[in-house]
Amino acid sequence: MSTEIEHTLTLPMSSAPQQDRRERELDAARRISEALFQHLSVEELVEQGLKIALEVVNSQAGSVLLARPETKELVFYYAIGDKAPQPGTAFPWTQGIAGSVFAKGEPLVVQDVKGDQRHLGKIDQHTGFTTQDMIALPLKRWEGHPIGVLEVMNKRDGRLDQDDVAILTIIASFTALSIEQARLFQEAKLAEVARILGDIGHDVKNLLMPVLCGASLLKDEIDEMFTEIQSQAPAKTKKSHEMCNEVIDMLSNNARRIQDRVKEIGDCVKGLSSPPKFSPCKMTHVVASVFDTLKLFAQEKCITLHHEGIEDLPLIQADEGRLFNAFYNLVNNAVTEVPSGGTITIRGKIHPENQSLQIEVIDTGRGMPAEIRDSLFTTRAMSKKKGGTGLGTKIVKDVIEAHQGNITVESEPGQGTTFNINLPIDPVFHPTP
Known about the structure:
By secondary structure, the protein is an alpha+beta fold. The protein has two domains: 2-186, GAF domain (Beta-Lactamase, 2-Layer Sandwich), CATH 3.30.450.40; 275-433, Histidine kinase-like ATPase, C-terminal domain (Heat Shock Protein 90, 2-Layer Sandwich), CATH 3.30.565.10. It has helices spanning 2-36, 42-57, 96-104, 121-127, 162-229, 234-270, 283-300, 320-337, 370-375, 391-402, and strands spanning 59-68, 73-80, 90-92, 108-110, 134-140, 146-155, 279-281, 304-308, 316-318, 343-350, 356-363, 406-411, 417-424. The strands form three sheets. The protein has a six-stranded antiparallel β-sheet with strand order 3-2-1-6-5-4, sandwiched between helices. It has a five-stranded mixed β-sheet with strand order 8-10-11-13-12. A two-stranded antiparallel sheet has the order 7-9. Helix 1 (2-36) packs parallel to helix 5. The chain is elongated and about 100 Å long.
């Protein structure tokens, strides 16, 4: 009897840690559920989930890494900590503790990270952070494969353990759900955009046909008229005739490019871009076409367009139409950012080591803050301009990569922007980096 009473009395004491853990789990579930129903963006949900994870297990730092299937990498999407990795930092998804968790789809507790051979020390070396203990959990689709990894590091009061895994599993599940829901919503939205663009493309083609026909008829009429009046003032007539032909040619060329442009944007949204059509291409023709198209726009803003070294570049194998779209985007965006009296320069030279083209697009505009510059060619890139779609930089990046090249950007607020582009002379035989 006394034994039974003693057992009954000691039961609450022995279950206190378990009860405390369940209360923490319920609190974590409640908080992450509240965040889920606040109509936050996926970035805000990931941030909120990671903050809750660090609070409930009392840890110093954490990160969310998402898989990038096209390059088979894990990419830091969001991180918290004094020396957190920059968003966009990536490593092969077969490496590191996170890579092991991603591959197996099971959580992992490491109480001595330095002693674990799987640990990627180069991340700590790069950031200056010292990882002591860690829990890594897979972010999974519903009954599916992992889409990323949630990491929590350096518990403040002891070491991370299996009890912490139970709490973090709840947060990881909700975080993965949020990301997956956002992805499905984005896919549905893009599918609708693609459908609308298809309709728009059809309408644009029909609307531009009379423009092209009208421009052709207008050219014939102007040629005939100037033939009759050129004897009255030959020099002035010739100059006026050349200007009219130049405007008509620009109108005709750009009407056709509008059709191609709408299709290009539609392909970009659908992710179904057709392979580039390589043929001999001279960069001077590409740059001249871009400048001819945008010179009136630039003149209205008193901006000077010029190039250096482009005419000396050799023929390359390229899709000239796509290169036009890429450089058009860069120059057109620059015109809107450069104040009156500024310049936009396209400079080219041959890279001495690998015989590729090194091309710079330099403007004297307002420049970009670090958060925009660093995300410009990542999945987090978005337009900050009123009415911007955010597709321009994606199209540029896709075009350059389709030519087996690469593009980077240098920019500081108030100091202008420089895009650095590397293009192989023959991308067909150029090995993919």
